Records
---
Amino acid sequence: MTDRRVLLVAHTGRTEVARTAAAACQRLGDAGIELVSLAGESGELDLAVFDPHDHSDGPIEIVLALGGDGTLLRAAEHARPLSVPVLGINLGRVGFLAEADADQLDQTLDAVIDHRYRISSRMTVEVTVEHEGRLIATGWALNEISVEKGTRERILDVVVEVDGHGVSAYGCDGVLIATPTGSTAYTFSAGGPVLWPGVDALLVAPSNAHALFARSLVVAPECTVTVHIDPRGQNAVLACDGRRIHEIPPGSRVHVRKGEKPVTLVRLTDQVFTDRLVRKFKLPVHGWRHQRY
């Protein structure tokens, strides 16, 4: 019996993931740390099953995510209610949220074993959806809340409001309301700005909007952003981090606010966000002044 437990969330079905999970289990186990996994993954990973309702074996210290950013977002779903941090090891492509790559596994696990890590708090967003005066859906996200058209053939007509005041109406493929963490994800692809994690704000970005004014907005963290869906239009789809999906009818009002509970991430180094941005996106930092002829 150990008083330290780590919950593993992995992108299963891949040989590399199974091999990395086995190595992590061995290294942590040798240090007296038990590695447990989710019910749907325990068989493939050959680990004990974590029961969130059974606290007899002690608390979870860290949620370890093996995979890409999608796996880390799934890990955050389990870490947030437990109030424990997520440690991402990138086995995917970009892995922007991950703290380490697969070739750094040993050093990363040693830092966990020796408690040589710090915690970074990341803002979340919470959403409520009302229709005809009734609450029909709720949710939260680490990256973004997206409100998108329900059918490919037609555009989605919306009015975007901030604190109950209309800002702009347009037809679009969707509207994204993101955190600073999410500014490098879906909203980045939609042309939104990159926000540093220390910025306390909400980012509103339309996707393929047909309007004269369809700019991204950065609003204060205490604001409520509302997306009002045309009551004479079509159904829309609400997605929280692209994972938790709700179909919502015409006339619905989607209210997005800063989340009351953050997600915490494990940080092993003091690397600044600027360097992470340049490294992950392979940005050219040497301009024409540095060229040699």
---
Amino acid sequence: MKNGFVFLFSFFTFFVYSQKSILLSDELKEISGIQFINDSLLVAHNDGGNGPMLYFLNPNTGSILKRVVVKDVKNTDWEDITLDGKYLYIGNFGNNENKRKNLSIIRVSWKDALVKDTINSEFMTIEYGDQKSFPPEKEALNFDTECMVFADGFLWLFTKNRTDPFDGISNVYRVKFQENKHTILKKEYSIKIGSKGWMFDSVTGGDFAFGYFYLTTYNRVLKYLFSDGKFTLVKQYKYNEYNQKEALTVIKDDQIYVANEFQKVLGKQKLYRISLKK
């Protein structure tokens, strides 16, 4: 690990400035990843138990414009999607019980996806170098990842903490995609998100844009600056409502889109267009 814990130094939590919610199709009840392709096009996917399908959406209406099947892979538990300009990367590494060994990252051409109904895929397998048992003891349940972003030539993975007792730490791993390779991930950084439990202080999605990392939990957005090997919290924004938010993408500076999965108690699947308070 290159540096120790990075603690929160922000004294204020801001509320989102404005928010518009858009009801999504029932095909996206378990939406767990979204990413802007350009200003007028989103790509999304569901999580585990669903087909290996990408959905292209109108960001203003949430309507499905196109469906694309990803060949030769299974949606064991897709948790996030990110873009490097040429390729889309899909994280098939959902690991709620921290006992999976078949973790992988899938790569597809986004340009192919725009013009074809079925696309070829490449993949690499991964494992956490610091995980020694499957599952580990309760106090070490921090090998589930639901957030992956592309920045500075690397894929950055932020873990969803499930430790008991809860320590509120998201571990950060970086990797460069290598087709048909197996990579052992090395923990490089750790961020202290909070101490209220995984329902409030575990990372479930994120994006990198305009020089900042934007991470989401179920109840808020955290905006970080990464410099000199350290994550510094710039601001945090509380959502207007609590639900199972699993995906985030940024379109403009402090303009984000967030999606939540369907839950009987917390409501239907929605896409939120959010302006963060300056």
